[in-house]
Amino acid sequence: MLFILIFIISLATSYVLPWWAVAAIAFAMSVYAGTRPRQAFWSGFGAIFLVWIIIALFKSIPNNHMLAKRVAELFGLPNWLLLLFVTALIGGLVGGLAALAGLYVKRVFEKPSESEFTELKN
Amino acid sequence: MPVVQSHSSVTTNKFGAAWLFSYISISVQPYMKIFRALFSVALLGVLIWALQTKFGPVPPVGGFINPATGFWQNAESKNLKNDETLQLDGLQDEVIIRYDENRVPHIFAKNEHDLYFAQGYVTATDRLWQMDIQTRSAGGRLAEVVGPDALETDRYHRRTGMVYGAENSLRGMMKDPRTKLAVEAYTAGINQYVRNLTIRNYPIEFKLLGYKPEEWTPLNTALLLKLMSETLAGGSDDLEMTNTLNKFGAAVTKDLFPDHNYQEDPIIPTGTKWNFTPVPVPKTSESFKAQMMSGNKPKARVEGIGSNNWAVSGSKSASGYPLLANDPHLNLTFPSIWYQIQLTAPGVNVCGVSLPGSPYVIIGYNNKTSWGFTNVDADVLDWYQLKFKDNTKNEYWYNNRWNKTTRRTEVIKVRGKPDVTEQVIYTHFGPVVYEDSTQKSRKVPVNVPAGTALRWIAHDESNDLLAFHLLNRGSNYDDYRKALTYYSAPAQNFIFASTGKDIAITPNGRYPLKFKEQGKFILDGTDAANDWQGWIPAAHNPTVKNPPRGFVSSANQSSTDATYPYYLNWQFGNYNRGKRINNRLAAMSNITADSLRLLQTDNYSITAHDILPTLLNYLDPTKLDATQRAALTELKQWNLCYDATSIGASIFNSWWVNVYSMIWKDDFDSPNADLRWPSRDRTIQLLLTQPKAKWFDDVKTPSVETCADIVSEAFNVAVNDLAKKHSKPGKGWQWGTIRPSKIDHMANLPGFGSQEFSTGGNSGIVNAMSGGAGPSWRMVVEMGPQVKGYGVYPGGQSGNPGSFYYTNMLQTWKEGKLNELLFLKSAGEKSERIKTTLTLKKDRH
């Protein structure tokens, strides 16, 4: 659920909002649908990771990856695929961390829930 | 207990963030909820801040890599839209822009305003960042976006009066309604594009440096033209010459640095009559005479920035009509300094190359005429030694009294740092670039003498653009002559050919009326007789029309022979390129565009032709080892061409460089003061005619060396050096391999330039390719009822490294080929070469 929400909203708004808006989206969606830390982090991470890969490839494939190759060389990376991975990884970290933070902020205002006790027992 | 348990989960959880928080939560559970929330939000904040911040040269990573607004968006698709219509504010009528297969825009407008509006618009679409960074550099505003590293460059440009000069130029442009209209419409067109930009489609360099495109101003156009003046008429060796005079005295200086070269083949053919009565030339000042007498005790200029042009008359061409060729040599960069364009409106249809940032076609042709340029190298920049009354520097001694200085405030913004304010002292000469040596950084050119004032033609009010306005519309020789009278600086050899079967060349610009050698050395600023006293009348500028030999040409060599009654400069480019061009043109007949193309890529070395036999005579083959003998054999078989595959060229070049350096290094390499080294021409004269000259002796050794000693020692050093770096004589010694070429991005960004490649040519060769400088645009035009142009530059129309049109013309240029230029008669003309059409429509509110 959380993954799909972040994925769809980020993809839909990416062209009109600044890059850090993905953090706000992941944060807000996690407040709404976050359940456990691991679920929140990986949903945020995975959704943004994928969104960024899709948007990047959408531009890069019709370009024969010419620009990606040049920018990879600019940053001293051996090939453009690694550049794509680094891009997605950074997006993923922002998304993951934001979703996690959203969940924790939500919990400050929540009464201790069943799930939290479950987690403690683990 | 839980602490230990959690610890083991480190290995199972690759991305530890989530784990980290659950770990803490278990340890100090009751207070942790708030702490955990705060800490995670803070960590997120730090991550976003770090990705949003510029660290040194690293761009703000977040914005740059975000695929929706960052660099990924600059990747252009290989599939172009066929037809596009844009509604733009500020247009008066519809404009049709047809793009050919090289993305060259052919603009059809219904009035002049719309024509230059569209030129500004399309140029900005392709080259906005280049335009921004060049004018920032000229105007001393680089540090604003780059940070403190660029501060000294900015100070230098502010202190040399670039902005002051641009303001004066702008005043000139705005006085004429024609250029005012063009500059303002061009500006409006650029700004129409800038205003419609969103972060997503900023050119990639803006994203990389993390700043926003700003609106263009007419002053930027003036600054861009000042940059050209700086490149082509902003150098001087007055300081080095003065140091040389002080060290060696007047007699030696006169002998080693003569006012006319030993070998000459001037632009205006020797013997051409001057059909004017010269105006009186000022008398040599007493202070100059004293300076030349006092020396009785016992950065040099860079070769490679120069250009070729020539035109042949109908009598020598296959078609019976004149042909014209031009290849300006400049630093080669991506994006290229040139932008190809065709401009059509009622009263004008012109094709060629423009400078991004300026309206008009700069080098090109229309249905009746064609024109091109090479640099004149007139002495239009002088330094005046000042005597201030006291440390306040409020008054300086000139013309037997104290005169007031003024001050101009220059505020330089520095990214991430407080503004830097410079108070630049101005005298009637011009700005005091550096008041003393402490004010001068080591990063700026050494040839700026501290404590002097700068008198520079580029500071004067002028309207050079009007010359281009008129050339674009010219239809005959008289129009060409009229256009030239408006042109001031940097002085250029304006070459011309017309369908009316005229050819002509004019070393043209605004020349100060000087006494002989005025400005060869730093001048005494207290003596009014050292001022520029007036101007050479424009009608007296050297010129030749339809000379009997059937061609005109220039390659930066001296403008005239010694009979020209005025002093332009004491030095020009060496005669070698001009000599080769003239030899070839004299020998050629039935000339076609293709024969001129081949001449543009001619690799023959006049220097080698002049001195190789003499150098070889000095070698004693019995004293050579096997490698040296092999090299000698190569040299003897060499065809004297600097071809990419030539081994002889590599050996000769290295030998010659060593000969030159070994003759002069002991006398002129000085740690205390920069000295001017004698020219290549003077060195050749020494080798050919004065083998007993004292300069061959290395003063640092006790023994006395002869010419033969130096020449054979230089040969051994050259060959041994080549063998050490490239093993035995063979493929590895090929000229194109040992001296590869490369075209870098303007900001030297790795990956944004070309790979290294092998080329023939060298400085001093018609094909003047030397490392990163060379023919920045090659053009040949056939005049006639159907004018046909050919041309190419090493790059592409788009300044975007993510475009298929970023480097697409490089290969053609490397192969020495030219593209046939598409010159449409009307917007509706059918051509297979038209790939897309952009229609600009007036926006209806």
UniProtKB/TrEMBL annotation, chain A:
Q: Keyword Transmembrane, does the record have it?
A: yes
Superkingdom in the source lineage: Bacteria
| Bilayer-spanning residue ranges | 6-28, 40-61, 81-105
Record key words, sorted: Membrane, Transmembrane, Transmembrane helix
Query: By what name is this protein known?
Result: Uncharacterized membrane protein YhaH (DUF805 family)
Automatic annotation (TrEMBL), chain B:
Q: What Pfam families does the entry give?
A: Penicil_amidase
**Record CDD domains:** Ntn_PGA_like
Question: What protein family is recorded?
Answer: Belongs to the peptidase S45 family.
Name of the molecule in the record:
Penicillin amidase
Is Membrane one of the keywords? Answer: yes
Q: Which domain of life is it from?
A: Bacteria
The residues that cross the membrane are: 34-51
Q: Does the keyword Transmembrane helix apply?
A: yes
| Gene3D superfamilies, A to Z | 1.10.1400.10, 2.30.120.10, Glutamine Phosphoribosylpyrophosphate, subunit 1, domain 1 (3.60.20.10), Penicillin Amidohydrolase, domain 1 (1.10.439.10)
Which organism's genome codes for this protein?
Answer: Mucilaginibacter terrae
**Which Gene Ontology terms cover its molecular function?**
penicillin amidase activity
Give the E.C. number(s).
3.5.1.11
Per the record, the coiled-coil ranges are none
Broad class of enzyme this protein falls into: hydrolase
InterPro entries under this entry? Ntn_hydrolases_N (IPR029055), Pen/GL7ACA/AHL_acylase (IPR014395), Penicillin_amidase_A-knob (IPR043147), Penicillin_amidase_dom1 (IPR023343), Penicillin_amidase_N_B-knob (IPR043146), S45 (IPR002692)
> Which key words tag this protein in UniProt?
Hydrolase, Membrane, Transmembrane, Transmembrane helix, Zymogen
